[in-house]
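#dry-run=false #mode=assembly
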Amino acid sequence: MSTNQIPYKIYLEESEMPRAWYNVRADMTNKPAPLLNPQTLKPVTEEALSHIFCRELARQELNDSDPYIPIPQPVWDFYRMYRPSPLVRAYCLEDRLGTPAHIYYKFEGNNTSGSHKLNSAIAQAYYAKEQGLRGVTTETGAGQWGTALSMACAYLELDCQVYMVKVSYEQKPFRREVMRTYGAKVTPSPSDTTQVGREILARFPGTGGSLGCAISEAVEAAGRQEGYRYVLGSVLNQVLLHQSVIGLETKAALDKYNITPDIIIGCAGGGSNLGGLISPFIGQKLRGELDCQIIAVEPASCPSLTRGSYVYDYCDTGRVCPLMKMYTLGSGFIPSANHAGGLRYHGMSSVVSQLYHDGLLEARSVEQTAVFQAATEFARVEGILPAPESSHAIRVAIDEALRCKETGQEKTIVFGLTGTGYFDMYAYQRFNDGHMTDAIPTDAEIAASLAQTPRVPE
Amino acid sequence: MSTNQIPYKIYLEESEMPRAWYNVRADMTNKPAPLLNPQTLKPVTEEALSHIFCRELARQELNDSDPYIPIPQPVWDFYRMYRPSPLVRAYCLEDRLGTPAHIYYKFEGNNTSGSHKLNSAIAQAYYAKEQGLRGVTTETGAGQWGTALSMACAYLELDCQVYMVKVSYEQKPFRREVMRTYGAKVTPSPSDTTQVGREILARFPGTGGSLGCAISEAVEAAGRQEGYRYVLGSVLNQVLLHQSVIGLETKAALDKYNITPDIIIGCAGGGSNLGGLISPFIGQKLRGELDCQIIAVEPASCPSLTRGSYVYDYCDTGRVCPLMKMYTLGSGFIPSANHAGGLRYHGMSSVVSQLYHDGLLEARSVEQTAVFQAATEFARVEGILPAPESSHAIRVAIDEALRCKETGQEKTIVFGLTGTGYFDMYAYQRFNDGHMTDAIPTDAEIAASLAQTPRVPE
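#status=ok
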C-alpha cells in the first residue's frame, strides 16, 4: 500500500480552506417548511427569532436564498487552529475487510471538543460577542456540544452556561470537568434554577432529564438574563450552514485527487454533521452534476427518519420554541435507558427532513451492539477510538464495503467520522463486558408519542 | 495575524517524513555509561539483554555508533496513520501574553493514545512480531504508554499484557477501558500474579503501587511465558531513538520556513519525549552548528535532574533489571500522593543524564499548581486541553515568553506538547476546585532514598 499515490491523510493547505459557508437551502427546489409561532401558527419573523438567537444567527436561520455566507475572519482564524481536518484513506480497514472498495473518512475529532461541534460553536459565540452580548446559554446531552461551546466562549471571553442532561452529568463527570476548565458553568437538568425545570421536577421527581427539557431550561435562562441569548448545537438551519465547512473541505480534498464518491454516509441525530457533510454534494445532485448514494444512519433506538412522521412538532419539552416541520418521534419520545451516546433527539433538522422526503438521501437504522462491534474493529486497525455516534456511520460503511467484496465493485465510500469516544468509555465498558443490549421502541410507543404532536393545518 | 506567512500549523508532506531514526549517541563525545549486570557489575551483553527485550531492540539499546537506523516500512506505514504531527505556531497564546517571542509547539497528542508514546510502541511491537513472538508485557503509570502499546499490538495482532500502577488503575478506569477495547489484558500492580508482586503486597499491604514495582512484575511475567518479551515506554536508549522522529519532524518543519530556535523546552519524566525532541538539535550543537538553549522541565515533586545524584541505580523496585547510570532520586523514591499525572519515575534516561552532566541542556523544576495554571491558560486560548505532563513544558514556555516581554527580545521558543489531558480530568477537577497543592520532597527524604543506591566502583 505504501506506493499508492493517495496519501493516508489528505490535508488541504490553509489557503485552500473555505472562505464561505454553503447554504444548501438556496439551491433546494422544495425549501424546508418555515418555523411557526406556536401560538399563532404563523411563520416566525426575524424580529421574533432575535429574541431567542442573536440577530445575525436569526438572519441566517431564515435565509434560504443566499448560497454562500462569508465566514467572518475571526471565525476563520479560529478554524485555522484545528482545521482543515484530514480526509483519511482507510487503507488499513480496507485491507482488513479485504474489500475492493476505497474507503475515506472525514475526521472531525482532532480537537479538544472531540467532535465537529466546534465548527458551529465558534460561529455562534462570535456573533454573540459581535452583538455585544455578555453570554450564551445552551443544553448538552452527551457533552460534545457543551464542550465545544465552552471552548469557543473561553477563546472569546464570553460567559457560557450549560444545562447538561442530568443522567449524562452524572455518568460523565469528566465531560463536565472539561467544560469547567474552559470556564463554563454547568448545571444538571432538570434543575430548580428555571420555572420549566421546577415543573418537570415536580411532575417527574428523580427523572434523569432529556435534551428537550434541557433546551427549555436554557431558553428560559437566556430570556431571563440581560445580554444573553440561547444557542443550539444541532437541528437548526444555521448550524447546518456552519457545518457545511465539513462538506466543502471534503469535496475540495476529493477534487484535488479527482475522486468521485459513490456513497456518502453520515450519522444523524439532529442532522448537523450529516447536513454539513452532504450539503455540497446535495448541491451537485440538485444541479445534476453528481449521481451518488447518500445514507443517513440513525440508531434503531431513536429512529426519527425511518419510523417517525413528517409533521410539525415541538422542538423542546417545555414547548417554548417555535414549531418545526420535521421527521419526528414526538417531543415526548425518550430513547430506552440502555441507549448509549448521543443521537437521541426526537426530531431531525428540517433541511435533512425535506431532502429525505424528496428522495435525495436514504436512511438506515442500526442497532447499538452492531455499532460497537464496528467501532472496535475500526479502532483496532485505524487507530482512532471513535465516538459511539460516529460509529453508526462506520457500521454502514463497513456493511457497504463488505457488499462490494461480494459484488467485486470498486466503489468509493466516504463517511463522516464526527468524533472520538474518549469520554464514552462507560459505554465501551458495557460493550467490552458483554452487557450492552439493543432496544428498539415498539410501534405502539412511537404512535403514543406522535399522538402528542400539535395540530397544524396543512 | 491572518496575514502572517507562517501558517498556524506546519504539516510536512507524507514524503517529507523521516525514513530513519537519529541515534544521538553516535555523535556524543561522552557516551552514556553502559548498563551493568547487577550481579557481576560488568556491562551487559546483547545476548543477555535479548532475554529481556527482543533481539533487534537489544541491539538498538547498545548501539552507540550508527547515527541513523532505518525505520522499517511497516512502522513507517503505521506512522502515516497519525503522523506527521503538526508544528503549531501559538499565535493566540502570543497575543494573550503580549510577548514579542514566537512560540511553536510540536503537538504529539492527535492520536488515540493521546501522546508521543505511540512512536516507540509501534516500533517495539513490530520487532516483537518480526521475531515471531506471541506477545509483550509492560507496565503503565498514568496510562499513556499502556494505551499506546495496546493500540500497536491490536494493529499487529500481538498479545499485550499491561501491569498498571494500582492507584492509577483505580483512579483512571477509563484509561483501563481504552486498553481493553484494544484487546489488552490489564492487571493492577502490585498483583498476586507474580512473585515480586506477592512479596511487595506482603511487605506493604494496601500499597497503591509504583512504576518501579510494575516494571518488576512485567519483566517477571515476560520471563515466565514462552514467546514473550518485556517492553518499556521511556528511559531506555531504544525509546529515545524511536522518539527522535519528533525532533526530526520538528527540525524539518522549522527548516522549511528558515526558523532557528533560541530555546527548546520539553518535559522530562523518564526522558523519552525530551530526548526525542532535542536529539537532532543536540546533534547540531555537538557539531557547532547551533547555539540554542535547551531546557528539561521536571516536577518539583520528583526532581531527578535538579536534586538527584548522577550514579548507578536500580531501574525497578524488584531490582531485576540491569543497573543504569543516571540522575536518580533512588529506586525507592515515590512522589508525594498529591502529585498528579506522570513524570513520577525516580531516574532519568542515561542519554539525557549524560547530556545534562555535560552541560548540553539545563533543567528546571516547577510546582504543579503553577503547571495547571499554565495548562488552563493554554487550553483557553489555543484550544487544546494539555496533559499534565506536557503542561510542565507549557509553564516554562510561558515563563520564557514573559521574560521576552520584559526584555523585548523576539526569541523563538519551541516546546514539546506531548499529549492531551482527556483522561486526567480528575487532576483538573482538583485544580478547578482549588484542592490542588504542591509537594516538594525534603532533602532528608531524598538523601534517605539515595542511600539505597547500589555501590558501584567508578
